[in-house]
């Protein structure tokens, strides 16, 4: 899914015909039918429905009662939790991205040569990617627990906290604990994506640079980084998007606590729908807000990183 | 090839059906219908004709619910199929089922959520049947009141869970306190807790509080306010009075303990409720309000002696939180007479005896509560005696104001005990805003 | 020389440390799940007590595992069929609307999961798919469709068209050509897509949370449900045992198919 930014320049498919033939159209749509059915039923209709619901009074228990645009949006804007969740989500996104990206990049450079030891390293770093975010979160939930987790005594002996305290009990503790979990889970995946980008750089460019007597840093700055621009853009978008939409890890580790200090926007959608407001209209409205924000952020990122062209034919 | 074609046709048909259904759905919302009419006339003992009834309840009360269902199934033609929902998901599941008319016949829920459900038309009106119950006068009223809206009654008590004061007699003895005399005022409570804290034993604390769990906090703190004669909630449940004199005294007592070394167990401020019963269970807490359902199992297993008493008010008095689950017949049920058969059976003295009293659980029938525990532990009698002073807070938006994670009530306690106590009134206002909506 | 040796040693030590950091939490979970702990089903000595408790927890481990298997199977099958056929159509046929369709599929990436779940809560019951594993399987397939279609399109484009022409000359129809000639030659990318969908569906938590009840819960949701007890002590032994059970198939597949996975990603990404 992540990989399309890399392939701006596509070769012209050799057998393309000059004009559309009727049989091609028929066959083409026949082959597209299963995908089309999935997209219509589980994508287009729900997107339409979420927009519609965001303009209605639609409670969890009572269902649809009336149109009420723009009441749901007004309610959200006036809910102090909304601003709080936005602030936290942004903070978390910046923190994760700033840690995850350089780390993955560094590790990719470290293991890029195809040696046996490096293969082992890659596998080790990639291993957490096989786990889901939910099961990773459960694993770290146990790791962080004062009852069975090994971390409390360690942090205690380092003088960082009292052994009786819970790591997830303070706002900072909960934030960092989640960041550590996410970095553990995703570094391998981002490293792999970066690695693919690195290996796509033609070796003769480096050879030429060697002939010119360029040093390691120089090569990194003048060749690797510029050539990796599309890869960096892609991993960046993945990291930012993923963090902005964080849900599982917070639902499982903190439930937005302590005292709403780790409430993400997507968690707030869940709470609006099922916990506090029990209001699907408000939850849908917040979904629409998140959807629009994400589209805008992605477009801006693509522009800023100079990857303006999207896949189109 | 054929398989693939078939699948394609299937998916295409699905898509077509879906588009059709959407048009149906936009005008299909039928709104709320508080206290919908029962599908059939229900009366007396209902009908026992071998119908299969579906029933939902939540995980914390699984043991009691299973006892009830097994006893009913083994003595009746009707068979109840029980589904246990995770506590935090109950609201979502019930709501989703209400959307799609898929509620079970019998629905039991946390009693503090019942007023909201009733107001949303989840239950059938059972006023007539409930009034016709022989045992009505003996039933605890908290769970009936919770499901009463505009005089119409919808629910009966299912499982009763009460809060009591418990203390560790071994620690009391070590601290030079009388192990047989628990606290009878808030001042004594503080005094006892401070004495245990003063032992200076590693890991042992005077008391414990579940600072991040609104549910546990109402369960443990509201009884002290009731016992002092104050009303934390207005009668109609649309406003709160959580900054009354006695309320402030109760918070102040815990604040004092929080500021005392070993006064409140480490982790109290961060306790989300997930492990709040553990420290006492492990013998590390002197005295604290506690769920009675969690103590009975400890009488035999704990390696220390446990004292049980009612939760006191500021200057004496006693009360308890009549929690647990109330039960009603859902508005989607087409088997109301059969479902009523289960409900009226459960209210009978025999059923109350067999299902609850014989298992040391709290019966909802006061006559059974008085006479049915002869062979039981004497501490059960003490706990049962608190039921008549017990209360169940009734408010439509109770869950949002109190139980939900990060609720204003949770923030109020956080500030009152560990933070800036001058903000209590503004938190109380925030609770009012939610209750009044 | 000595300098070089020191550098080597430091390098190996440092990288070994990195490897250990990534492996350690998983190793800890395995150990913890069999280690003795009070308030778990393995209170003294090492043993499989927690796994025994997990087997009978709630609806029973077999129920949750078979729920997981069914929804994962539906997701993988639906996504592979839809993505392979769509990839072929986009790579090989020229017709009005295909560019639009491709962009539409890719635009799924732009729309967050979370935004679709609220309407799906309502919509699934209109489809008669509420609280069904098949329904959730379709939703999970949809979310992997962009990646799948993209990889499969690239895969088909890299196959020389002579192969296809030859099959057609032999009298094969379009669909027969597709099944007999084209599909076998894109096996590797299909494995990649399948693995990707498998990992995502097997591990997914959020979609089942919104759309499935406790009896139909796949294992991740069941494990989280168990964690949510109120007024009770969390059983960490059960939790870590559950994490290990969840991790085993995912890790095995992941390791066994690593080559495929990386190759597939590279061919999907780098191939021009």
TrEMBL record, chain B:
Keywords: Signal. The keyword Phosphoprotein does not apply. Residues 1-26 form the signal peptide. Pfam families: SBP_bac_8. Residues 28-49 are annotated as: Disordered. It comes from the Bacteria. InterPro entries: Bact_solute-bd_prot1 (IPR050490), SBP (IPR006059). Residues 38-48 have a biased composition (Acidic residues). The keyword Glycosyltransferase does not apply. PROSITE patterns: PROKAR_LIPOPROTEIN. PANTHER family: ARABINOSE-BINDING PROTEIN-RELATED, DIACETYLCHITOBIOSE BINDING PROTEIN DASA. This is Sugar ABC transporter substrate-binding protein. It comes from Ruania alkalisoli. The lineage of its organism: Bacteria, Bacillati, Actinomycetota, Actinomycetes, Micrococcales.
Automatic annotation (TrEMBL), chain C:
CDD domains: TM_PBP2. Residues 65-257 form the ABC transmembrane type-1 domain. It is found in: Cell membrane. It is a multi-pass membrane protein. One of its GO terms (biological process) is transmembrane transport. GO terms for cellular component: plasma membrane. The chain crosses the membrane at residues 9-31, 69-90, 102-125, 131-152, 188-213, 233-257. The keyword Transmembrane applies. Its main location: membrane. Keywords: Cell membrane, Membrane, Transmembrane, Transmembrane helix, Transport. Belongs to the binding-protein-dependent transport system permease family. PANTHER family: ABC TRANSPORTER PERMEASE PROTEIN MG189-RELATED-RELATED (PTHR43744), SN-GLYCEROL-3-PHOSPHATE TRANSPORT SYSTEM PERMEASE PROTEIN UGPE (PTHR43744:SF8). This is Carbohydrate ABC transporter permease. It comes from Ruania alkalisoli. The lineage of its organism: Bacteria, Bacillati, Actinomycetota, Actinomycetes, Micrococcales.
């Amino acid at each position: 899914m992540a990989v399309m930014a890399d392939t701006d320049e596509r070769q012209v498919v050799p057998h393309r015909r000059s004009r559309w033939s009727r049989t091609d159209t028929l066959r083409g749509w026949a082959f597209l039918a299963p995908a089309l059915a999935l997209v219509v039923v589980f994508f287009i209709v729900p997107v339409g429905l979420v927009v519609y619901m965001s303009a209605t009074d639609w409670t969890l228990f009572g269902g649809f009662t009336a149109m009420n645009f723009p009441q749901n949006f007004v309610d959200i804007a006036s809910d102090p939790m909304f601003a709080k969740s936005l602030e936290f989500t942004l903070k978390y996104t910046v923190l994760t991205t700033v840690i995850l990206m350089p780390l993955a990049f560094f590790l990719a450079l470290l293991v890029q040569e195809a040696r046996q030891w490096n293969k082992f390293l890659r596998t080790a770093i990639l291993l957490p990617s096989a786990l889901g975010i939910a099961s990773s979160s459960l694993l770290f939930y146990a790791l962080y627990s004062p009852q069975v987790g090994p971390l409390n005594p360690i942090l205690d002996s380092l003088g960082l906290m009292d052994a009786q305290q819970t790591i997830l009990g303070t706002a900072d503790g909960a934030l960092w604990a989640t960041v550590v979990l996410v970095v553990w889970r995703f570094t391998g995946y981002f490293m792999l994506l970066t690695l693919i980008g690195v290996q796509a750089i033609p070796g003769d460019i480096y050879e030429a640079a060697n002939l010119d007597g360029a040093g390691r840093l120089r090569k990194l700055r003048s060749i690797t980084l510029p050539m990796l621009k599309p890869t960096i853009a892609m991993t960046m978008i993945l990291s930012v998007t993923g963090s902005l939409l964080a849900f599982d890890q917070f639902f499982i580790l903190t439930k937005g606590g302590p005292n709403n200090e780790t409430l993400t926007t997507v968690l707030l959608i869940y709470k609006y729908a099922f916990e506090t407001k029990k209001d699907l209209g408000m939850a849908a409205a917040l979904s629409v807000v998140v959807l629009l924000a994400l589209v805008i952020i992605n477009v801006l990122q693509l522009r800023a990183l100079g990857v303006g062209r999207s896949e189109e034919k | 090839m054929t398989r693939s074609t078939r699948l394609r046709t299937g998916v295409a048909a699905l898509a077509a059906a879906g588009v059709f259904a959407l048009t149906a759905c936009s005008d299909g919302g039928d709104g709320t219908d508080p206290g919908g009419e029962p599908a059939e006339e229900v009366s007396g003992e209902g009908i026992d004709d071998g119908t299969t009834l579906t029933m939902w309840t939540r995980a914390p009360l699984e043991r009691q619910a299973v006892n009830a269902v097994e006893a009913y199934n083994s003595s009746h033609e009707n068979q109840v199929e029980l589904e246990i929902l995770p506590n935090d998901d109950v609201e979502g599941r019930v709501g989703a089922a209400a959307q799609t008319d898929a509620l079970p016949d019998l629905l039991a829920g946390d009693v503090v959520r019942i007023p909201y459900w009733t107001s949303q038309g989840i239950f059938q009106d059972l006023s007539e049947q409930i009034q016709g119950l022989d045992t009505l006068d003996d039933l605890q009223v908290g769970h009936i009141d919770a499901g009463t809206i505009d005089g119409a009654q919808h629910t009966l008590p299912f499982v009763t869970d009460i809060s009591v004061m418990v203390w560790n007699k071994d620690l009391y003895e070590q601290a030079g306190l009388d192990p047989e005399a628990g606290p009878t005022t808030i001042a004594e409570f503080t005094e006892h807790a401070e004495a245990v804290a003063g032992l200076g034993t590693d890991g042992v604390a005077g008391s414990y509080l579940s600072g991040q769990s609104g549910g546990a906090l109402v369960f443990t703190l509201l009884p002290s306010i009731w016992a002092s004669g104050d009303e934390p909630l207005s009668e109609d449940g649309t406003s709160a009075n959580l900054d009354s004199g006695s309320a402030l005294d109760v918070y102040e007592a815990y604040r004092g303990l929080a500021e005392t070394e070993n006064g409140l167990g480490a982790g109290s401020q961060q306790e989300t409720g997930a492990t709040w019963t553990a420290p006492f269970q492990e013998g590390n807490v002197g005295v604290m309000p506690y769920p009675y359902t969690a103590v009975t199992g400890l009488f035999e297993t704990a390696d220390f002696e446990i004292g049980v008493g009612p939760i006191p008010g500021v200057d004496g008095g006693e009360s308890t939180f009549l929690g647990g689950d109330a039960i009603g017949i859902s508005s989607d049920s087409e088997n109301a007479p059969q479902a009523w058969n289960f409900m009226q059976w459960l209210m009978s003295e025999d059923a109350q005896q067999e299902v609850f009293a014989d298992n040391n659980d709290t019966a909802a029938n006061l006559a059974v509560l008085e006479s049915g525990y002869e062979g039981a532990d004497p501490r059960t009698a003490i706990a049962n005696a608190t039921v008549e002073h017990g209360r169940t807070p009734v408010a439509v938006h109770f869950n949002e104001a109190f139980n939900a994670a990060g609720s204003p009530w949770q923030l109020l306690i956080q500030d009152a005990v560990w933070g800036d106590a001058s903000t209590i009134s503004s938190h109380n206002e925030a609770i009012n805003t939610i209750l009044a909506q | 020389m000595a300098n070089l040796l020191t550098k080597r040693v430091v390098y190996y030590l440092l990288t070994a440390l990195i490897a250990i950091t990534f492996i350690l939490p998983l190793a800890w979970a395995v150990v913890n799940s069999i280690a003795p702990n009070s308030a778990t089903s393995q209170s003294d000595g090492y043993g499989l007590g927690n796994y025994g408790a997990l087997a009978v927890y709630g609806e029973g481990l077999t129920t949750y595992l078979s729920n997981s298997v069914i929804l994962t199977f539906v997701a993988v099958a639906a996504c592979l069929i839809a993505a392979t056929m769509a990839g072929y159509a986009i790579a090989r046929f020229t017709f009005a609307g295909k560019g639009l369709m491709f962009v539409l599929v890719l635009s799924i990436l732009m729309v967050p999961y979370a935004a679709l779940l609220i309407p799906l809560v309502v919509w699934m019951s209109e489809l008669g798919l509420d609280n069904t594993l098949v329904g959730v399987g379709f939703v999970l397939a949809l979310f992997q469709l962009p990646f799948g279609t993209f990889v499969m399109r690239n895969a088909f484009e890299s196959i020389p068209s002579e192969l296809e022409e030859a099959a057609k000359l032999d009298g094969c129809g379009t669909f027969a050509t597709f099944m007999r000639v084209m599909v076998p030659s894109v096996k590797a990318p299909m494995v990649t897509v399948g693995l990707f969908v498998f990992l995502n569906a097997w591990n997914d938590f959020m979609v089942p949370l919104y759309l499935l009840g406790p009896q139909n819960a796949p294992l991740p949701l069941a494990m989280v449900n168990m964690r949510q007890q109120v007024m009770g002590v969390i059983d960490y032994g059960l939790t870590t045992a559950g994490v290990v059970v969840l991790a085993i198939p995912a890790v095995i597949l992941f390791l066994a198919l690593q080559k495929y996975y990386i190759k597939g990603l590279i061919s999907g990404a780098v191939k021009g």
